[in-house]
Fold:
Amino acid sequence: MKPTTIHKIPGGITAPRGFLAAGLHAGIKKPSILDLALVASEQPGPVAGLFTTNQVAAAPVVLDRLHLKQGQGIGRAFIVNSGNANACTGAQGLADAKEMAKLTAQSLGVPVRSILVGSTGVIGQFLPMTAIRDGVPRLVQRLRRTGGHEAAKAILTTDLKAKEVALQAKIAGRTVTVGGMAKGSGMIHPNMATMLAYLTTDAAIAQPTLQRALRAAADLSFNCISVDGDTSTNDTVLCLANGLAGNAPLREGTNELASFQAMLNEACRSLAMHICGDGEGVTKIVQVLVKGAKSVADAKAVADTVGTSCLVKTAFFGEDANWGRIMAAVGRAGVRIKPERIGLAIEGVPIVKQGVSLGRDAERAIEKLFRRRKFRIVVDLGIGSAQGSLWTTDLSYEYVRINASYRS
Structure:
């Protein structure tokens, strides 16, 4: 099959046909900061969802799972607030999430089960429902094709910048578009999901097929990044398809679905890298690639252990090429290894061979590499053919400052 040519285009989450969006300041956060977003499709369509594995799930996560079941996977709109997570809020929190969905459904004139709700911010506080009751009708009135950037800004918390993507390709003679927006800066770890991410597409596709495609895309992107090893109570990834591209429904095992999967993979990868690059206090972005493992699971376990080690991450920040910390992390990853076969290289420069240092000259060479904004570490376990990777970041003074004063 000839590779699909994918083009980056402007427009973000409203780039696909038939999608409108808006964002405004409802009063959840301090004045002048956008804090309520809405993305709506002109017609209903299948929606796929992936949610946090944290057992302390926020009210919006509970409600979205319910709506996907009640609506048989058919959705119409996403409404998302920032500044308040609506997590650990009990029965009142769930009632507030339901009211948020009902207000949106009434304003749009659509079934309440077709509304998916998202919240992000401080845990343990009740939503200011008076502000939301006032804000939702105004938000619906602001819906427009050019509202994607506004919506992307309204879902941010400690993020420094909005995270958006829009891609387009020809599939079976039809122009198909995928758009998206995300928020995430802290509490980022590959345990599905790891943030809030919303995707739209005008492709015609059945819900089960879309669900599988989203899972596959997430495993190659959102499940390959880590900032601090924490997984939130609110983590959600949703993708809504409205079929307005006019293509024949994408079917399993076809070149057309493979082309769409490539687009969705790239959209999720782009958003994931924006999240990683905008991590709280981040000054370094590092890929940890583990190869030569007995299984993919083993490779990922080693990559996760190295990439989430506080000692390794602080070495990245201090530009201290302390490769011994990496080796120590490999050894405690919980998988069977043979230390005498391990190789370690930084940006292609070997530093360890057969478990032993290659000397001071090699150390001096990698010291310069640690000064880069972005670099790659390769760990070769030397005992198999499987591999896995993780994109991680450094751990800086600024990360501590942000999170030490988050509530204040």
Q: What stands out?
A: DSSP finds eleven helices and 15 strands in the chain. The longest helix spans residues 255-277. The chain has two domains: 7-277, 285-404.
